[in-house]
Sequence to fold (363 residues):
Amino acid sequence: MIVSHLKLRNFRNYESCEADFRPGINVITGPNAQGKTNLIESLVCLSLTKSHRLRNDLKLIRDGSEYADISCVCNNGRRKRLRMVIHREGKSLMYDKQMLKRTSEFIGLLNVVLFSPDDLTLFNDAPKDRRKVMDQEIGKVSSAYIRAVSRYQNRLKEKNSLLKQPSPDATLLDVLDEKMIEEEMIILQERKRFIEEINEVLPGIYRELSQEENSIRIRYETFVSFEEDLKEELARIHRTNREKDMEYRFSTEGVHRDDMTFLMNEQSIPDIASQGQKRMTVLAFKMALSDYIRKHTGEEPVLLLDDVLSELDSDRQKRLIARVQKAPQCIITATELPDMIKDLHPAVYEVRQGRIRQTGGHL
Ligand SMILES: Nc1ncnc2c1ncn2[C@@H]1O[C@H](COP(=O)(O)OP(=O)(O)O)[C@@H](O)[C@H]1O
Ligand SMILES: [Mg+2]
Fold:
């Protein structure tokens, strides 16, 4: 998949901006606070229907404007046009000329994998943030998964409010448990498969990028053992937890508490890894995500590297570039064009105060 054209209207500090991108490496240069990350963020929005760096969509609208309009043309042999308009009442999603009602229909039309310096928070954030990563990445390849998570969350809310009542109706709780188990089956199996598939490639990518012998893997932290029939196990857990749930007045166990632990030589990475090793783990994880997406969609995602090269020594930069160079398209931001990319004949752009112009490559 490649993004061949991007058009922004009243998005962040862009009043009006259009750019053509090329297959292969595209580098966006410019001093700080000019709009490089904003441009990357607009592509994340077209991929996930929301920004990676804030919850409130309205902040994406340029100060003083009524709406933001982001659109792109992408190409995987067939041209598709994606468009998202953010306004005070919400957002509209369009695929070619068609309005889409559900975000789950839009997600997956353009897949990107973002590499950002903020990714390091993966190791200290609350479990909720790591669940968000799982949900987001699995969601890129399965809209059934997105719908299961959303239904589960609704049931969970219903169950928790029922548990808050003075004497919750046991039959109603049974019904909710049964419905939750259905969604949990989907969620647990997809998350388990996701982590297994990431683990198949993660150690090798880490060794390649870091040239270290350390063994990296992710451990899935969940409440089931997967050692017996999943449906039976879930039914038993829900039954056993009933008393505790009634006492605490909320659902004490479930996929809403799942987590992932990143391990280096079987020890928790936040406990033992250096800053550099954490950085390499994140990069390897992101490359593994790209493999996962390709495996399930048959399509390579667009790689977005926002300001990550400057944090690596030149050998590691070289190895990362050697890897991302193989992707159909990679969009890299940096304050200046890194020397080692010059030889790869990238398309080069400069961003200044919300304006973009191409300064190198085929003009
Ligand atoms: N909603 C908005 N309206 C106008 N300007 C914005 C908005 N949101 C962010 N900005 C501006 O965007 C700039 C930051 O852009 P960013 O892409 O993060 O910079 P960088 O080039 O360093 O990556 C800042 O000057 C900020 O004030
Ligand atoms: Mg930036």
Q: What stands out?
A: Residues 36-37, 307 surround magnesium ion (ligand 2) (CB under 6 Å). The domain at 120-298 is CATH 1.20.1050.90 (Glutathione S-transferase Yfyf (Class Pi); Chain A, domain 2).
